[in-house]
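Consider the following input, taken from an annotated entry for QCR10 domain-containing protein (Lachnellula suecica).
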Amino acid sequence: MAVMGDLQHEHSHLAVPPSTGVTPPTGPRSYTAYKSPYGPKYKIQKNVQGITLKSATRLGMTLGGFGAAAGVFAIFFFSDIPKVRKDIMVNIPIIGDHFIKEIPPSDN
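Applying the prediction step yields:
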């Protein structure tokens, strides 16, 4: 019993008792992968926190399209407000004449 107590005391810092035969886990091992000279030459794209130039361009184009659509919607939604109609809508080159509202003299 004294021998068994000494072994347990000696390995008390381990999470698993030595009598189970299980060794404690070690850290991850890094193996270098075999790279064939005949395989494709892979390159990692330059990125900023995982966002590449291609994905940033695609996101910018998408957000620009949504922004333009939202802007056109907002302009036409607020086109009945007299200040917006006079300052913005009348100055649009092709369709500006459509937004000129003349009040008949009988309504004055």
